[in-house]
User: Fold these one by one.
Assistant:
Number 1:
Amino acid sequence: MNAAIRTVARGVATKAPRRIPSTTATAPTIRLFSAAASQTTPPPLPESVTRVGEAMAFPNEYPGQNYIFNWCLNADGVTPLKKSAFRIAKPLDLKVAGLELHKTSPLKVNAKGERSKVPEAGSDGLDFDTFDDALQSTKDSLSLSDSLFCPEGHAPGTRTGVRVISNMGANLAPELVAYLERAPKRDPKSQPVTCYVLSGSDEFSGYAIEEVEETMEDGSRVAVSVATIVVTGKTPSLKRIVAGIELSVEGLEADSKERAEKKAAEEKAE
């Protein structure tokens, strides 16, 4: 009997113990990454962003940069590419342009001796092609000038508007302001007489008068005459410019008188 008990006991002892399921949750697995790997490189900016220029305020006007006057100069065939064009219609405008007033005002100019040196286009002394070439070359050179000085007013003793477009500041603009009569303040527009003056160039002088159509306030179109003067040289003189202005005004008045007489004759015939 003891042998049987020992056998049973041995059998019990040799059986593997029963495993009891654990109720403890398995700890989560944590994956570690290096600091270099955790930094994400941002994508590059699109190319369109790099093409954007600097921001600027609009309108960007300042002394010498006036949009309305620049458009007016464009109509006269001159584009102030350096963005420095001064409209000088009164003495205060000279100070704005950094210039001094002339000591004498009004300034009387005797230009009789210079009149023969300013021929009219279409005359024996100057053909139209030569004048047109000189005019276009002068306009192009003025457009490239560092600054433009543009005195304007009435020709003395008349109500004929005159504008001088020049690259000459202290040497000419104050004298022209003193010579021309001050005109009523208005928005800039093209004048009956436009004079292009260029210094530092070959010498040339001439003027031309042509008839154009002008739109009136009521929408009608009428024929009017306009004059263009070109004076270039190393240092164009005031007397030469005044001679061109005087000859131009006389030509405009003659054309106006001729049209009036023609219209009167037509009305009388009716």
Number 2:
Amino acid sequence: MNEVDQSQESPSWQYGSNPQAIRIENEGTQVPAFLNKTYEIVDNPANNHIIAWSDSGVTFIVYDTGAFCSHILPAHFKHNNLASFVRQLNIYGFQKVGNKHLWEFRHDKFRRDERQQLSFIKRKTPTRRWMGENQNDTQRSEAILTELIQLKQRQELLEMNLVQVMNTNDTLWNDLISCKQQQREIQDNLQKVLYFLMSVHQADDQKQSQLTGVLDMTHNSQSMSNLSSGPLNDGMSHLHLSSRIVGSV
């Protein structure tokens, strides 16, 4: 009875002499460093945008594999290989569950707020068949991870190109608006000049006829400007009208 009482009074777990493991005093067992580190990573709220418990708390999910490989793994396991991490999970009996595109894992003894259950997770005894299957799974996982990284790089490149196209389109649109405004100003000035000349040559019927014809051309040019192929054609038509006005004077 005394031994039981002492066990209950002592902490449920503490670091033992082995820095690579946690000793569960009341069970007399050690939790492997991999399981302890993985639990700490998942249970850390600062990592929730990268890796976290599911809503039920019976599984955990790697939401951002890129950040997980570049930041989490090197900080805790001294490597950045997702396939190696998954292989270790498989060794301890974890299973990948849920959507095939989601990195979600489950173990009956690996749950939120139940850290004491880690001592019951046992490492699988390797067999030749299991080792062969595990090697194949590792190769497939590494191929999938490589493809995911390549797809992410292509997505980032496409996003950069899209931003450049949008910026170019904005510049061209602003230039078009500016050209249209200049076109309207030129047309207004031409009409003012024509009305002035018509007032000057009121007694000359021939000049009046010529100027009236040119004025009609400016109106037609203005109505057709919306159908023109571009500001260059509009500018050429205005130069032509200007030469007609000079010739009519």
Number 3:
Amino acid sequence: MLMQLVTIALLLVPSLGFAPSITRIKRCQSTCSSSTSLAMGLTLYGHPGTRSPLVNWACYELGVEVAAGDLSKNPHPFGQIPCLTDDNDVTVFESGAILSYLIQTYPPETITAAQKAIILSWIVWANASLDPICFLETPDGKVYDTGLKQPNKRVGQLEKLLQEQGGLLVPSFGFSIADVAVASYLLYVVQFFPTVDLSRWPNVVKFMKESASRPAYARAFGQDLQESMVGKLSDAPTQKKMFGMF
């Protein structure tokens, strides 16, 4: 869905760009979430100008390794990216499915079944509910605008939850792949529609800024883009109430 926007973004905002191709995702440093599982057979078929970096981001947060695949050998049934392969003839495509596979196959050692369940639910919500809000499409599938220019009940509920839960989607666990899934789409909106006003959702903006500030985000998307995103979100206007101003 985001492919149509990539060309526009690169032409209009060349300073943002995308991170250079990553040939090998190394095990996360101590700043990332720890995991005792080390993926030996993961191969990601992708490109920086697609949704692939959000998979890279998830891998960094989980602390797994993944090799970059030869796109000429991409096993995706429709030839699209991202696509992930693993040992035992495993092939997973669609970013949401890939994130779900990663959290189930290479979970942090401290995660509980309840936490994993809610993380999986947020991944599905990000793809099924948030994506169509963030990116409005024509009948033939071309993205023409973002729904975040107008009030939205679901995003309003997300705003409330983030306020109540300390800015995390799974507060009992901490920053997780659930946050990666949701923050990725929101951050893509700011990247491709830089003039969008999100001030009606201050907790969402704070969540986006804190997510983009993570070392794993910079490693996946590039430091230049991280600095641009954090800068835009830091400068985002705060919606003020009319009463008490006079």
